[in-house]
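#lab-general

N.A. 3:47 PM
ok so I finally got the sequence cleaned up, no stray characters, all 354 residues accounted for. can someone with queue access submit it? mine expired

B.Y. 3:52 PM
send it over

N.A. 3:53 PM
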Amino acid sequence: MSSIWQEVNGLITSPRDGLEEICARHALGWTLPLGAVAYYWRTLPISEVLLGPIGGPVTYLAANAVVALGWMVLLTGLIHLSTRLLGHRRGRWRDMLLLWGYTQVPGIALILLSGVFITAAPRGWPHTVGIAWLAPVFALAAALFIWKLILQFQAVRVCYGLSGRKLLGVIGLALILYNLVVWAEFTFVDDRGRVAPAARQAMSSALCPVMASSRTYVPLAFDRLVYRVRTPRRGEVVGFVPSGWTDSLGSVLLRDHRRFLGRVVGVSGDEVEVRKGELYLNGRPVEESYREGRSGIDVGPTRLLAGQYFVLGDNRDVPLAEYHGGLIAGRDLRGRLTEVGRLRWAYLVEMGRC
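B.Y. 4:20 PM
back already:
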C-alpha cells in the first residue's frame, strides 16, 4: 500500500517525472483498480440498461467494475487511435492504459470530496450555507480538476513523446471521437438529463420528498434502450420533453439536456379521464397507491391514438402545465427512469438522507 502513496506523491510534486517512472516499470500495478473506481459511477447507467434485465441489481452492480474498466480501455484506445490517424507511430497503447489509471487519482479524490460534502452539508444548502464555508471547498475541487487535466496531458506526452501543436492535435481529435461515442450512447443506450424542479415536485412520492427550497435542476439517468425493444407500460416513470422541444446547440455539445418527469398512466388505445386528480381508465377508476393530492387536475375523456401516451405526475396538486404532462407522443419519451436515476435523486436532492 505504501507504493501507491509514493506514486501519488510523485504525481503531486512532479507529474511528468512521476508518470515516466510508472511507465518505465511496464507493470499495470494500481492502474486497473484506480480506473474501475474512477469510472464506476459514470458507467452505472450503462450497466443497468445492458445487464439489469439479465440478472437484476446484484448482477449489474458487480459487473459494473468490469464495464468501468472497459470504459477506460475505450478512452485510451481513442487516444491511441488519434495518434495513429495523425501519423504518429511512437508509443504503445498498453503504456497509455498503464498511465491512465493514475491520472484518475485527482478525480477519485474529487468524488470522495463531493460525497463527504453532500452528506455533511445541512439540508437546504446552498441557501443555508455561507460563501465563506463554500469557497474553500470549491477552490479545492478546482485544484483537483486542474491537477487531473495536467496529469492527462502529461500522460499523453510521456507515452507518445508529443508536445506543442502535435499534442493538442491528438487531444482535440480524441475529444471529437469521444463525443461521437457519447452521442451514440445517449442516442441508443441511455439518456442523462437535468430534471426541472416542477417535474420533481410532481413526482415526489415516486422518489423522495422534494425540499420546498430546491430550485436546482438535478441530473438523472434514463433507460433509452428499453423503448427500442418494447413500448412503454402503464406505471413506468419516464423522462420526456414537450412536443416540438429541441435542445440548443450548446446543450448538445455540453450534454446538458433538459428533461421532465411523469408516470405513464395510459397507453395507445386507452381512454383517459382525470376528475379532481383521480384517474379513470376506460371509464373505470384506477387505484393509485402512489397518488398525492386530489384537487389540482381535471382532464376530459381522451382517447389515445397509436404512438400516444398519457403522462401524469403523482402529486395531482401540481398543474399539468408546470411540468408539461398530459398527452405525450412516443417520440418525445426519452426513456424509463432507472434505479441509478432514483439513487441519484435520493443522494443529490435529499443529501443522501431519503
